[in-house]
Every structure is written in structure tokens, then in C-alpha cells.
TrEMBL record, chain A:
<feature type="domain" description="ABC transmembrane type-1">
    <location>
        <begin position="134"/>
        <end position="315"/>
    </location>
</feature>
<protein>
    <submittedName>
        <fullName>Nitrate/sulfonate/bicarbonate ABC transporter permease</fullName>
    </submittedName>
</protein>
<feature type="transmembrane region" description="Helical">
    <location>
        <begin position="240"/>
        <end position="270"/>
    </location>
</feature>
<feature type="transmembrane region" description="Helical">
    <location>
        <begin position="134"/>
        <end position="160"/>
    </location>
</feature>
<feature type="transmembrane region" description="Helical">
    <location>
        <begin position="201"/>
        <end position="219"/>
    </location>
</feature>
<keyword id="KW-1133">Transmembrane helix</keyword>
<comment type="similarity">
    <text>Belongs to the binding-protein-dependent transport system permease family.</text>
</comment>
<feature type="transmembrane region" description="Helical">
    <location>
        <begin position="61"/>
        <end position="78"/>
    </location>
</feature>
<dbReference type="InterPro" id="IPR000515">
    <property type="entry name" value="MetI-like"/>
</dbReference>
<feature type="transmembrane region" description="Helical">
    <location>
        <begin position="30"/>
        <end position="49"/>
    </location>
</feature>
<keyword id="KW-0472">Membrane</keyword>
<keyword id="KW-1003">Cell membrane</keyword>
<feature type="transmembrane region" description="Helical">
    <location>
        <begin position="172"/>
        <end position="195"/>
    </location>
</feature>
<dbReference type="InterPro" id="IPR035906">
    <property type="entry name" value="MetI-like_sf"/>
</dbReference>
<keyword id="KW-0812">Transmembrane</keyword>
<feature type="transmembrane region" description="Helical">
    <location>
        <begin position="85"/>
        <end position="101"/>
    </location>
</feature>
<keyword id="KW-0813">Transport</keyword>
Amino acid sequence: MSNAQTMLGNSNALEGGAETTNTRFKPKQFWRQAAGPAWLLSALITWKWPDADDFPATNQLAAFLLATGLVLIALAAAGRLKDRAPWAFVLGLGLGVWELMQAKLLLLPRPFFGTPQDLLDVFLTDWKRLGNSLFHSLLLLAGGYLPGSILGIIIGVALGRSQHVRYWVRPVMRVIGPLPPVALLPLAFVVIPSARWAGEALMALAAGFPVAILTWSGVSAVDPAYYDVARTMGAKNRFLVLRVALPAATPQIFVGLFMGLGASFAMLVVAEMLGVKSGLGFYMQWAQGWAAYPNMYAALFVMSLMCTTLMTVLFKLRDHLLKWQKDGLKW
Amino acid sequence: MVNSTQREAPLALTLSHLHHSYDTPSGSRPVLDDVSLDVEPGEFVALIGPSGCGKSTLLRLVAGLETPDAGTLLADGTPITEPHPSRIIMFQDPTLYPWRTVRGNISLGPDIHGEKNPEAVTAAIRLVGLEEFSRAWPHQLSGGMAQRVALARALINSPRLLILDEPLGKLDSLTRFAMQTELFRIWKSQGFTALMVTHDVEEALLLASRVLVFSPRPARILADIHVDWPEPRHRENPRLQELRAHILEQLETGISPLSLA
């Protein structure tokens, strides 16, 4: 194969062949050198092998695969392609296999299974509406998750610090908290005049409950000696809450924030599918109604990208705020 | 603050007829029984007694973290009703805040009072010899270093009374010896009044100018011993052995077989 040729040729140039001989198989070298060519191979299949049906955007797909392949080859030559090389290789090859199976040989039932060019076509022709939907989803999410989380932290701290708050709020939490917020959706749509506000309120509830519980648990677990140390130096309640209880409970609060974010995603999609007339959930519902499966897949892809990006942002925030911890889970 | 030119006058302490008890599931349990005590400004008083006899409770009362059931506590003639930065307590565990660096932990007192005093923080770090670790996180410190940070965190408040609740209790013996010397040196140079609970008779005799022996719970004062031996104090000094034997004898008379059960 031509890949093997490139691999042998370049491994000499990169490593200088200090002690190892060129004939021995080196997996790291292989991944780095083969990632780009894998994409080129997929581009070649896409371009030269005739489509089984009249699919849109085949040439654009080939161009995209070609460009990615060239970029990967350049990165490998510059020594910038390291840990991600195996993934880049598998992705390139995987796209080629998908292209071959569906666009060239039609092995899977249509229209439920689209082709790569179908998907690309959606992004090329409908990117405005997708972007708009993404924007509205983010807006809705922010309007529910952020106030819900802040409220959850406040309630959690109050639960952890005050006997009175515990007495009155705990029973309410126990009744409403474990209920899936989705179950309240029909009620919320009736009680709250705007579907948008109803969705946001339920998202706030979905995020607020785990955040409040975990914050409470974190604040309750604070070593009482931490308070004594500050009190003996003259600290008042404000300092004890904001500068002792809150930082000490931060690891737990973040567990709540992660759980709340997941619950908010679920609530977001349901709200958009059932009442709110915008956003990615609405787009998916609409696409499915018109049997526009590639559009549905595209929206799903964008949604997954949105969720993973927001999770990553939250992880980065946590890593920054909890850099004092010995170790933590890496996302 | 820490620097000696701005030193605060040491505190005089007057405790009279203190009674205190804790509520437990099996009823009220007395821990202090009519404890009276006068501490002169600048004294270093060590409290010795069996475990759980109520010495730590006494320290918490003096710090103002708790109020006694009966009796009065006076600091320079003024009743103690709440904690005050002039009376700083240091615990057996360093209880450093893990989310603050060494420097951040030491500047806790100034932070609480909204003061910015980087020079004082630096001076306090230097006083306990941790210049190289000022940016370290608490989990990166050894037990001895962590306790030195706790000491610096206490001293930056220029306490007029330093309350020490077995501060060296959990350290290994080598670190302990080094910290004893350090504590003594700092007490000498800063001139505060010190009140220290310890289980180590030798430690009490090396550091304190006065040793109080407590009975088992509820705590009463069994003996009040002035430690009158010259400095520098060395472990090998025969006077230490005499005093040590005397105190152990007092402790044993206090612990009858009945009270142990």
C-alpha cells in the first residue's frame, strides 16, 4: 500500500533511525504517518467511485476530506500530530467506509441512514437555520441553568448553615426534588403563560435541585474547626459563609453543577420538542416531521457538540477553581 | 505586627469558679468543676492532665468559642464573651484551609479584617522559616511544616494571648523537638502570654514557666508548679527529672482506679 511506503520513507527522516531498523513496525510512527493518507484515501473513493444515486455535495465532501488529509500530513510533518493521531486515522478511514457502504453500495435502508454528503449538504445549505437554532437553545439553556444553579447554591448554603431554613425547606425539597421536572411540563405550560418561561423555570428546577442538595452536603461536611479558626480571629458570619463554607464545599458544588447541567440538557430538549417553537430540539422535531433525516442528524450533531463544549467549559472552570486539590477526574 | 517593634502587651487572665458541662444522650456531663486560675502577663502556662479531662474545654472558653455554665473569665479585667483576635487558638491539627496557599493561609487574619499587609505576611513566613514554600498548597506540606504555617497564621495577629491545644501532639519526635525549641524562641521574642495543653510532661517543663496538673473529669486543679530552672533548658538537666517525677506523682494521685473506669 502507498501508506506503508510513506511510513517507511518518513520514519527515516523523523527519527534518524538511531538504533531501530526501518523494517520493524512502530505503531506510533504508523498512526502519525497514516492519519493523513487515510483521509486522502476516503477523498479518492468519494471522488472517483460513482455514486449509487443522485446525492448532493459529493465533490464538496471529497474536497473536505482532501483538505483535512493534507492538513493532517502537514501537522505530522511538523511533529504536531501526537496523541490524536490514532483517532484522526480511524475517523478518516471510518468516513471512507461509511461513504463506501451508503453512497456507493447502498447497503443500509434509506432514508433513515443518510450518506456523509447528505449530512454535509445540510450544513452547506441550512447552516443559517442550524446556527439560529443553536443560538436559541443556548439562550434558553442559559436562562434556566444559570439562575437555577445560583439559586441552588444559595439554598444549599442556607440549608447547611441554618436550622430554620432546614426545618421549612427540607420537606418541600423532599416532595418536589425527586420528581422528574419533565413531569411538571404539562402543568407548567398551563400555569406559566409563555412556553419559553415555562421551559426556563423547569430547567432552573432541574439544575437547582442537585446543586442545592450537593451544596448542602458539602457545607454540612465542612470541618467545624475551619469555622473555629476563622472565628477566633474575629470572623463574622459573612466571612464564614463566603470565605470558609463556600470554598470548602466547592468540590461538592461542582458535582451538583455537572448533574444539574445534564438534567438541564434533558429538560431543554423536551421543552423545545413539546412547546418552545425554536432551538435545536424544535429543529429536530420539525426535521423528523418532514422525514428530513439528514437534517435531524445534523441537528443531533450540533447538539452533541454544544453539550460536550459546555461540559468542557464547566470542567475547565472546575480545574481552575479547584487547582488546590491533589487530583481530579479529567474530562 | 509580627515584627518586634510593634509588639502588643501580653494579656493577664483571671478565671474564677468556672463550671461547665456538655449535654450527652445520657444526660449532662460535667467537664469543669470550680476551676479558678490567675495568669500573669507574659507567663507560659502548661496544662497537664488525663485525656478527656476538660483541659481543651477550658481553652475553648478562654478563646471565647464557648461560654461557661457558671463563673467568670476576665481578660485584662474585661469579661470574655466572644472570640477576639488578641486571643488566638492553635489546634492539634493544623486545620489549614486546603484552598489557600501557605501565604494565603497565613494572611487569613488580615483578610478577615480587610487589611492588606504583605510585609507582615512575609515576616510571619520568615519567622517560621517557610520562605521557600509560600506558594505551596497545604497538601504538599509535611506535618511539621503545616503546623509551622498554623503557628505563623496565629502569630500574624500579634496575639496578646496564644492558646495552644496540644499543638505538637501529632508530630514525630524529631520534628517535635525542633518545634519546641522554635516555640520557646518565638515566645521569648514576641512576649505574649501562652496557655498550652499538652500530654508530654517533659514538653511542659521545657517550655512553660508554670505547670498546672488537672484531675480526671470533671477537671479540678490538683497542683500548680512554678518551673524555676535556668535557661537554656536541656533535657539532660537533673532538675527536669526531679520536676518530672513530682508531676507524675501528682497525676497518679489524681487518677484513682475508680475514676479510670
